[in-house]
């Protein structure tokens, strides 16, 4: 997994090298500073030569300016590296999620995918920048500082060496405690947000029951829980910070006292003592970094693992290696002993189903809900693959076609029409991204949308969706139909396309649909029998499979399932 992680550094090798080199340089300067001070006190001060002191100070200034620039590079370019990696990962993830088949989305919550794409990658990005670099720099500074400290005084260094692990443990432990406190704070704020969302979206219910006080009391409880959690987190934070601060001062104090004794007994010069104290300060930096990493590493890696898990989920509907793109399918559809179930545990929804639909024919599927009508229509564009049997179009197994070319031949209009945030024009043109203005207007006209759009002040540029115009079910349906006119597929699937509409709207849309169905192989799924009167053939689908098949009049005469449905709906 680490190798996978580092592979994301590859495209940004140059950035990494520059950042890393500067970081090493900054670290070396940090180590050099106490030594410089020591030389300054022990060697320069006794000479009382002002000229040399000025000269040394000026060169120190130059070195500092350079170091400042390096600091800038490390902070800016280093974070840029992290952001670049995060962006690359997000690209990979989005591309992969788009490729996933329907089964993946059946089993994955949208919220989880979203949090993967935002939060997890955010953590990983932070880690990608700070992880490897900080680890190296921290160890380098740490070892460097200790080597130089041992060089100055052995006993003092041993004392520090004993205290340091305790300090690391203390800081890491505090970090864990603090994270727990922040986590419970986040949980409480999630509760509060959930409550607000509920009450606001349910405000009509709240007000009609005059339950405002009840809502307020529930909200108050959550809001106060949040306060408790957040105050608690700050309390721990204050405790931790002050204690760590105290520990660090204590260490300096120990060095000071023991160091004083050592200088009195001529085991150490003044310059060495000052230098040693400065070194203990230099040490605190890597200690902080290492304990931050100890805590960041599992979090970043856990996020990375969730990320990898998605990347490694192969879509279960894939192109066969020898799949060929098909062109100009006529739309002769056959099911040969098709068996399919969503979950192994639940058994098949469709069992050994056989039927044929001629090119250009309009076939209606009717039957009780849950019988498997939508399932049948999902198998044709390979949203799912059959468990056994075969579906052919124009005699070719659909698994021998590329998914893309197959789906280019099929248009689906469902009960729910999804509109994207954007203009009406963009939403219609979704059926053919390179459609000309002429084509878009023609499609809108044939979908009976023109009149409605022309009455809008912004016409085709009207924003729809979330922050724009709210469209009625019938209007949305017409946009879906306009998309189909643009896409112009030889095979058309209408799955309860008009079921949610009132009878009058349905009649208008039905005209557009009849126009659309002309010269195409059309599967109509509907529960209102009036809708399918003109179908060439009707198939009655029940749990048992296709129970009856024939024209409208034939089925009425047969006195079976369809005749019963017909009787009920006519009264
Ligand atoms: P119809 O369109 O005839 O109302 P469906 O084809 O939607 O019926 O559903 C047939 C059966 O398959 C139902 O029992 C339904 O619960 C089940 N089903 C439909 N979609 C899924 C899915 N995505 N995952 C699991 N089971 C499903
Ligand atoms: Mg259905």
UniProtKB/TrEMBL annotation:
Membrane topology, as annotated: Multi-pass membrane protein
Membrane-spanning parts: 20-41, 53-74, 158-176, 244-264
Family indicated by similarity: Belongs to the ABC transporter superfamily.
SUPFAM superfamilies for the chain: ABC transporter transmembrane region, P-loop containing nucleoside triphosphate hydrolases
GO cellular component, one term: plasma membrane
Family annotation (CDD domains): ABC_6TM_YwjA_like (cd18549), ABCC_MsbA (cd03251)
Keywords: ATP-binding, Membrane, Nucleotide-binding, Transmembrane, Transmembrane helix
Gene3D superfamilies reported in the protein's UniProt record: ABC transporter type 1, transmembrane domain, P-loop containing nucleotide triphosphate hydrolases
Keyword NAD: no
Compartments where located: Cell membrane
SMART domains: AAA (SM00382)
Domain spans labelled ABC transporter: 333-568
InterPro entries found in the cross-reference section: AAA+_ATPase (IPR003593), ABC1_TM_dom (IPR011527), ABC1_TM_sf (IPR036640), ABC_transporter-like_ATP-bd (IPR003439), ABC_transporter-like_CS (IPR017871), P-loop_NTPase (IPR027417), Type_1_exporter (IPR039421)
Leader sequence residues: none
Identification of the protein by name: ABC transporter ATP-binding protein
Pfam family, one: ABC_membrane
Residue stretches making up the ABC transmembrane type-1 domain: 17-299
GO-annotated molecular function: ABC-type oligopeptide transporter activity; ATP binding; ATP hydrolysis activity
Superkingdom field: Bacteria
Main location: membrane
């Amino acid at each position: 997994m680490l190798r996978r992680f580092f592979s994301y550094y590859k495209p940004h090798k140059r950035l990494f090298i520059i950042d890393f080199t500067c970081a090493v340089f900054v670290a070396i300067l940090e180590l050099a500073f106490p030594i410089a001070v020591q030389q300054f006190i022990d060697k320069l001060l006794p000479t009382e030569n002002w000229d040399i002191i000025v000269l040394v100070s000026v060169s120190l200034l130059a070195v500092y300016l350079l170091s400042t620039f390096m600091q800038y590079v490390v902070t800016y370019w280093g974070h840029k590296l992290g952001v670049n990696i995060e962006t690359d990962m997000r690209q990979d993830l989005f591309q992969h999620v788009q490729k996933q088949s329907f089964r993946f989305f059946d089993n994955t919550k949208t919220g989880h995918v979203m949090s993967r794409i935002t939060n997890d990658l955010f953590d990983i990005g932070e880690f990608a920048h700070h992880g490897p670099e900080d680890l190296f720099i921290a160890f380098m500074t740490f070892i460097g500082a200790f080597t130089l400290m041992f060089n100055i005084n052995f006993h003092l260094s041993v004392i520090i060496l004993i205290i340091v692990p305790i300090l690391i443990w203390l800081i890491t432990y505090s970090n864990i405690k603090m994270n727990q406190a922040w986590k419970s704070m986040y949980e409480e704020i999630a509760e509060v947000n959930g409550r607000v969302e509920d009450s606001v979206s349910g405000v009509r219910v709240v007000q009609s029951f005059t339950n405002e006080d009840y809502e307020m009391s529930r909200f108050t409880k959550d809001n106060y829980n949040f306060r408790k959690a957040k105050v608690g987190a700050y309390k721990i934070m204050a405790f931790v910070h002050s204690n760590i601060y105290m520990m660090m001062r204590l260490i300096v104090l120990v060095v000071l006292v023991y160091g004083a004794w050592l200088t009195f007994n001529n085991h150490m010069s003044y310059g060495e003592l000052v230098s040693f104290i400065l070194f203990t300060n230099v040490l605190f930096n890597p200690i902080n970094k290492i304990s931050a990493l100890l805590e960041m590493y599992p979090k970043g890696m856990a996020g990375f693992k969730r990320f990898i898990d998605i990347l490694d989920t192969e879509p279960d509907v894939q192109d066969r290696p020898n799949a060929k793109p098909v062109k100009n399918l006529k739309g002769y559809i056959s099911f040969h002993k098709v068996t399919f179930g969503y979950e192994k545990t639940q058994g098949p929804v469709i069992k050994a189903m056989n039927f044929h639909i001629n090119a250009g024919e309009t076939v209606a599927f009717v039957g009780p809900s849950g019988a498997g009508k939508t399932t049948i229509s999902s198998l044709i564009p390979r949203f799912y693959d059959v468990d056994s049997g075969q579906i052919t179009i124009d005699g070719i197994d659909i698994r021998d076609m590329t998914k893309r070319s197959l789906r280019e031949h099929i248009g689906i209009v469902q009960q729910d029409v999804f509109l994207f945030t954007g203009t009406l024009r963009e939403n219609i043109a979704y059926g053919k991204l390179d459609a000309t203005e002429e084509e878009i207007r023609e499609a809108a006209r044939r979908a009976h949308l023109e009149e409605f759009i022309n009455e809008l002040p912004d016409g085709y540029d009207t924003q729809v969706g979330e922050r724009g115009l709210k469209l009625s079910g019938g209007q949305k349906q017409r946009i879906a139909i306009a998309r189909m006119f643009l896409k112009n597929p030889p095979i058309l699937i209408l799955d309860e396309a008009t079921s949610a509409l009132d009878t009058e709207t349905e009649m208008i849309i039905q005209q557009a649909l009849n126009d659309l169905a002309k010269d195409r192989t059309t599967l109509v799924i509907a529960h209102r029998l009036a809708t399918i009167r003109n179908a060439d053939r009707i198939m009655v689908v029940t749990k048992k499979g296709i129970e009856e098949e024939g024209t409208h009049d034939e089925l009425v005469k047969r006195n079976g399932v369809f005749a019963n449905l017909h009787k009920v709906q006519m009264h």
